Amino acid sequence: MDMEDPAMSMPPFHMVRVEGDWAHKDGVDLASWEVEASIGRDVNKFVLKSEGEVSDGVTHEAEVWGLYNREIAEFWDLQAGLRQDFAPVDTTFAVIGVEGLAPQFIETAAYAFVSHRGDVGARIEQSIDLPVTQRLIATPHLKADFWARDVPEYDAGAGLAMIETGLQLRYEITRKFAPYVDLNYQRGIGETAGRLRASGEDAGELTFRIGLRIWI
Amino acid sequence: MILIRAILALLLLGYCGTALAGDYTLVVARSPVTVDGNGHTALTINGQLPGPTLRFTEGEDVTLHVKNTLDELTSIHWHGFILPGDMDGVPGFNGFSGIAPGKTFTYHFTVKQSGTYWYHSHAGTQEQGGLYGSIIVTPKGGDIVKSDRDYIAVLSDFTAANPDRILTNLKADPGTYNFHKRTMVDFFRDIARDGLGNTLRDRLAWGAMRMDPTDLADVSGYTFLINGKSADDNWTGLFKAGEKVRLRLVNASSMTYFDVRIPGLKMIVIQADGRNVMPVPVDELRIAVAETYDVIVVPAQEKAYTIMAESMDRSGYARGTLAPHDGMTGEIPPLRPRTLLTMADMGMEGMAGMSIAGADMGGMPGMDMSHMDHMGHTTMSGDAKDEGPPRGWVDASTPAGLRALSYADLKSLTPQKDTRAPSREIIVRLGGTMERYIWTINGKSYADAEPIQLSYGERVKLTFVNETMMAHPMHLHGMFVQLLNGQPAERLPDKHVVNVPPGQSYSVLLTADAPGEWAFHCHLLYHMESGMMRKVVVARLAAGVTAPKAGG
Questions:
Q1: Is residue B224 in a domain?
Q2: How far is A181 from chain B (nearest CA, A)?
Q3: B97:A3 CB<8 A
Q4: ipTM of the complex
Q5: Does A3 contact B73 at a Cβ distance shorter than 8 Å?
Q6: How many domains are there within chain B?
Q7: A134 and B181: CB-CB below 8 Å?
Q8: DSSP letter at B198?
């Protein structure tokens, strides 16, 4: 340990944030989670992310990402690593992307990935925290998935395949403990919509979720 | 036999009496303390928070044994003291590696100055945990300013939270302690007051820079203390009507600027950072982290006067009382409103705030100059200063007609010995990114930067350029600097802490007359811990070569 540097006298900084919510729609119980954890110092970090969704006990979406994170600009980090999907089907991806804060405080992440089956895709996520009061925070959010070609395993067509958008409203009882509601709309686009319908599902789904956001 | 004993006793007495050689023991420990009626475990010195007030005499050879009973490294730094580098107490400097757990380190130096100073840990975040105390040095011939009462007032910010946890939280979410953010409610209220266009322009201008004008203080949730006592505990200093009372204000906090006033009493500032100044009568003063100000007040009436020290972000206050008897309280004025930073604090008001001599203007982080033409004077409501809400970092809501102390008011009482013009200028850019909670000097964190090299005896001008929207109290160990505050050269005041407001430039002169490695850093604790520090090396010239003698 370098005793000279005050910054190095502290252990690496860590953060874990978990969001979990539940909805009940058309007789079906839906639960979803989103986890982000990081450990490291200012320039280099290791980031672990996970998200997924379970309906009536069946996990139809589960992703775990492990990324090396490096500061490349004042408000931007470069991230690269692996993404492992356990649902809808076991798939391993190599991932590269950027995460940061765009002007007007828009949290932004953009990734490109290629799966072990040779499928190439991309994802963009954006959100912005708008305080309604000091503890009530409204967060509009948007996620879009793109694929270079049709991916039957994901019921996805080429191009823009799926968007998920919504408005989360959380109340920070403490900064680290916040129950929330999320009005959430997911929709398959174009080709994807057709495939979803063919599988017996709706192309678009509006749910009202209730959840808890904690970080340590 | 009795005669021999008597002679021995007299000799012993004579020895103790003539040799000014104080021997002090300070034990650093984690102990139970009571703050504001609640029990806590804090870091203490000799079991006390603040640590005991040390009383030295100018010219005294002091020996201080600091014993570390913690299970982590500690160190004590004697803030504002001129002393050998290896006695300065900064781990990693001058071969000092801190005081290991269980060990005792003995500091030994001759006190070469007088006035009010303080001491604190220079290891990690221990200062926030309670390791601080005051030092009063009596001048050789006694104080020039005679007073009937002499009180120390150590202002500090106390938190029950683990200070390392505070820094981790700031790294994860820099706005985590800010409960005064601009909300949708504020948005609609501003539209009603200033119109949609002006309000949108203002929000978009700050959003473009990804900066928050409500960011006055990084940490909140503190209990503010005077001499370890909360506002309810009510530290009290007694007086008889008409007596001259000396109040030695020490800002021993980690992160808090205090606006100090005593309603009904004028404060006459006689010392700044331990150095005598020509007396300045003021109604209030803003004391930056690590600064000290000695003031004289003359309470004329047999009643209680409130010492009111509001935190700059108005999240709370420290309160004490000057009274004829114990148990009396004066009226506590309501907290004044919190200010909001403006584009002028970013140095963007027609570039007026940027008086930088020869500095490189390019590459200022986060400042997109192309938005300057959109900047109307948007949310400023009216010109009359005491009518609208406070705006700008400087605005403490000082009532019209009352006077707040400014650096320009400070004038050294004793003429400066070195009045040479500086031979070169060193630009010190204060920077940082709030979003990452990284703070820098000249674009670099301490770990990535080269030391600043000075030749022993040289006279330099340090120009601070604050590229951030927070004020930074900049502190150089081992030497005093002279503020270039408009006073004549021989009357420039000495300071060991220089507060640089947001968006401002400020120059000081320095005679590099202390050889060694000296820490140079922002005294906001979590900024220093996030990289806002440099090593300044003052190297002796080759043997046989002497520095030019200081003029006049």
A1: no
A2: 18
A3: yes
A4: 0.92
A5: yes
A6: 1
A7: yes
A8: H
